[in-house]
Amino acid sequence: MPPRPEPVRVADAAAAERLVAETLGRMSALEAALEAESAHVRAGRLREGLAGEAAKAALAGAYLTGLEEVKANAVALARFAPAGIAALREAHRRFAAVLERNQAVLATARSVSEGLLKSLSADLARADQPQGYGRARPMPSPYGPARATPLVLSRSL
């Protein structure tokens, strides 16, 4: 495990502005990654949408590190860069909206895919039932109750 870098300590206005700018840059990069992922998933290009998962995780880690540094230096930032604090709050508000939209898109995609798999499974189970004349009812089997056949999912498609 690599050694942890020294925590950032803000002692002057230049360091405060640099920390705010770095944090805003990290937030902006993560926001762009989330927007791209949402656009791909919304358009049905799941493979492209989920391709940047490692980069998104690295950006999220860097963003969280930046937030920890901002929290650790909150008093110094308020003293040296009050405008930077306001910019961070506004950017965080926009970022929260982007994150919420991204989560909604991913939840919708998951719900749709689960619905497709359930309906496919139900269709396969219905096809296994013997068809006869009259009212639809399961045919008795001398081997006990019929068991559903497993559904196989191919990830290579």
What this model shows, in words?
The chain is mostly helical and 157 residues long. 69% of the residues lie in helices and 0% in strands. It has helices at residues 13-42, 46-49, 53-72, 74-80, 82-128. Helix 1 (13-42) runs antiparallel to helix 3 (53-72), helix 1 (13-42) packs parallel to helix 5 (82-128) and helix 4 packs across helix 5. The protein is rod-shaped and about 85 Å long. The protein starts with 12 loop residues before the first helix and ends in a 29-residue tail after the last helix. The model has no long low-confidence stretch (mean pLDDT 83).
Helix content: 55-70%
Low-confidence stretches: none
On the 0 to 100 scale, the average pLDDT is: 83
N- to C-terminal separation? 37 Å
List the helices and strands and how they pair.
Blueprint lengths: L12 H30 L3 H4 L3 H20 L1 H7 L1 H47 L29
Helix pairs in contact: 1-3, 1-4, 1-5, 4-5
Which key features would you list for this structure?
single chain, 157 residues, mainly alpha
Short description:
With 157 residues, the protein is mostly helical. It has helices at 13-42, 46-49, 53-72, 74-80, 82-128.
